[in-house]
Amino acid sequence: MATPVTTPGPSREASVSKVLSVSALRKSYGDTVAVDGVSFDVGHGEIVGLLGPNGAGKTTTINMLLGVLEPTSGSIRIEEVDLARQRSQALERTNFAAVYSPLPGNLTVAQNLRIFGLIYGVKSLSARISELLEQFDLVRFRDTRCGVLSSGEQTRVALAKAMLNRPHLLLLDEPTASLDPSTARDIRGRIRDFAAQGHGGVLWTSHNMYEVEEVCHRVLFLSRGKVLLEGDPRTLPREHGRASLEELFIAVAREPLALGRA
Hints:
Blueprint: E1 18-29, E2 32-43, E3 47-51, H1 58-65, E4 73-78, E5 81-82, H2 87-91, E6 94-98, H3 109-120, H4 125-135, H5 151-163, E7 169-173, H6 181-196, E8 201-205, H7 209-215, E9 218-223, E10 226-231, H8 236-239, H9 245-254, H10 256-261
Parallel strand pairs: 3-8, 3-9, 6-7, 7-8
Antiparallel strand pairs: 1-2, 1-4, 4-5, 9-10
Helix pairs in contact: 4-5
């Protein structure tokens, strides 16, 4: 699936410093290895796609980055802060959004943002909430319970929550799944704007290869818990004899061993 000529790839003028450094990360459950020695980094101003078929280890990796799961071995550093040793200091620089992790539906938009803002210790919280309501076009929903919002509206609230603490590392797991094309385009634009500011980096999982080509500066293909391929999403398929990123994704899912030897 080729990127339309009217949609240029993302540009990046960012520091080479790393917002995230992952080294030899491994997670096993007895004899079952979910993540097997993964190493990668994300720079400031960079959007990195973490791709792969279901069961490849993407969500397990993100849960380790969030401190939800403890790695079996390996290290995670967020702006040189070791997550294992300085958990609070590392996680205060991080935030997360996913369509499968909605905010409490019985609370209003403002109540949700206030509670999470208190959890993150956001300074001048009322002003920050007002700023985010404007930024994500949520002012009219301030006093609406999140459970009655549409999927697109709930996604915008989740992203507003994810921006509350001005994160340096933003983790997005399928952020536009189930959204209509117009809303998904709006969400992609907001994430690109966040990265373009250069203060933080984004790790993004998606099964939408058009979206990945449009948004990501670099992609990592996971297969069976390992990084199989890495590169620019607009040139990587040709490097492996595939016409599109979607074709490459299918090949990773069906014949990872052949690609790994290439």
